[in-house]
Design goal:
It catalyses: 2 ATP = 3',3'-c-di-AMP + 2 diphosphate. The chain contains eleven helices and seven strands. With 259 residues, the protein is of the alpha+beta class.
């Protein structure tokens, strides 16, 4: 018979699993867990089919692997444990109106020759990179992004991270790509670098040339016009194209949107 102790036990185990999920989902470790599940599946199938050598190899590698993982992911484990108790951040997907705000901001930054680096999170959580900067968690707006990258503010150095319709953090350090691209400095290398280790779309505004480029999957686009940039992001995030009526409505009321 189910006693109150059993119920408490089940609840406690469920809570532990929930926080374990939060801990994993907030970092890049999610991809690793998927890989581990495939590993365990192959191991299980190999043992069941009597493939003794393969099962022996995988079994022994797993013992070593557990220790290696703890060492390699030690900073992430620490960061994730610190986040326990704060709960998950609420996020709404980036809608067309916010995409316009984003493009308007980078257009102005490029005209003013202010360098900028903006990562748009997709499936790979960017929490660990956000932790290297200043936590903002503010509603995305053109003026906020322009303020962040205005070159007299302490936050303009480094990259900003967008999660859904919010600016999660600014002043973040992104990993630098090892690629030897001619004429590209560290801002562009950081954009490529982050897109190599995650599926984020990373916008770079060049301070020197005022160009707009987008890094995706480890590749940097050629300089783009704001309209092209908007379309690429819209495709990348699968944002529905506004209907003609919606687009006209926006064109008629630009002042109101700025407020
Ligand atoms: N690892 C990094 N993560 C985030 N931002 C970085 C990183 N490295 C450099 N940056 C940003 O790039 C700036 C330096 O840009 P730098 O001029 O070297 O690059 P660039 O690619 O030539 O860009 P630009 O065309 O804007 O001059 C730094 O001040 C900083 O804001």
């Amino acid at each position: 018979m189910l006693t109150w102790r059993d119920a408490l036990d089940i609840l406690a185990v469920a809570t532990v699993f929930y926080y374990l999920y939060v801990l994993i989902a907030e970092s890049r470790a999610l991809n690793l867990v998927r890989g581990l599940l495939v590993y365990l599946l192959v191991w299980f199938v190999a043992s069941r089919m009597g493939l003794n050598s393969l099962a022996w190899l995988l079994g022994n590698a797993a013992t070593l692997g557990v220790f290696a993982l703890i060492v390699v992911f030690q900073p992430e484990l620490r960061g994730a444990l610190e986040r326990i108790g704060r709960g998950r951040l609420q996020r709404q997907p980036l809608a067309d109106a916010q995409l316009n705000e984003l493009v308007r901001a980078v257009e102005r930054l490029s005209a003013l020759r202010y360098g900028a680096l903006i990562a748009i999170e997709r499936h790979t959580p960017l929490g660990e990179f956000a932790a290297t900067g200043e936590n903002l968690d503010a509603r995305l707006s053109a003026r906020l992004l322009e303020s962040v990258f205005f070159n007299k503010t302490p936050l303009h150095d480094g990259g900003a991270i967008l999660r859904g319709d919010r600016v999660l953090a600014a002043g973040c350090v992104f990993p630098l790509s090892e690629k030897q691209e001619k004429y590209l400095g560290t801002r562009h290398k950081a954009a490529i670098g982050l897109s190599e280790v995650s599926d984020a779309l990373v916008i770079v505004v060049s301070e020197e040339r005022g160009t707009l480029r987008l890094a995706d999957g480890g590749r940097l686009s050629p300089p783009l016009q704001p309209v092209e940039l908007r379309e690429r992001i819209r495709e990348g995030l699968q944002i529905a194209t506004p209907t003609l009526a919606e687009a006209r409505f926006r064109l008629w009321r630009p002042k109101e949107r700025e407020g």
